[in-house]
Design a protein that fits this description.
The protein is mainly α. The chain is about 70% helix and about 0% strand.
């Protein structure tokens, strides 16, 4: 790891935390629309994003109020999704990975914590994640590739 790698990972973590916290009313809960999840596609271009997203999610979820489930469960989901996004970076699976992983892991524990139907929370999280990844994350990758940022 060099300084550039660590700096980019730190910037991604800070962005994730800032966006999540600034939009807290829509970033937490069983019906969430976490715009910071657009950053989950960054491992397509930057392997250091795996670390930044993991740390960013960990810290952002400390402020979410759901305790250990969200702090560790959400962070683990992000770590898995970010690694899969990097692993499949040349395929559509890079975009689908965070949708599926978050839908099942985050949606799964949210259904327990909020005593809501399992499939409702799975579909709710998956649907919001899909909108964010394809409406914001995909264009973000296109722009970053075009300008080689």
């Amino acid at each position: 790891m060099n300084t550039h790698f660590i700096l980019r990972a730190t910037m991604i973590a800070a962005l994730y935390i800032s966006i999540t916290y600034a939009l807290a009313p829509i970033s937490y809960g069983p019906l969430q629309f976490r715009l910071s999840e657009a950053l989950t596609v960054l491992p397509i271009l930057y392997p250091e994003a795996i670390y930044g997203l993991f740390i960013g999610t960990l810290i952002a979820n400390i402020f979410g109020g759901l305790g250990v489930w969200d702090i560790f469960g959400g962070s683990l989901a992000t770590l898995i999704a970010a690694w899969l996004t990097y692993r499949f970076r040349s395929t559509i699976w890079a975009y689908v990975s965070p949708i599926i992983v978050n839908a099942f892991i985050v949606g799964g524990y949210l259904s327990i914590l909020y005593a809501m139907p399992f499939w409702f929370t799975i579909l709710s999280i998956g649907f919001s994640e899909a909108i964010i990844v394809f409406a914001i994350g995909y264009p973000l990758i296109v722009v970053l590739k075009k300008y080689k940022l």
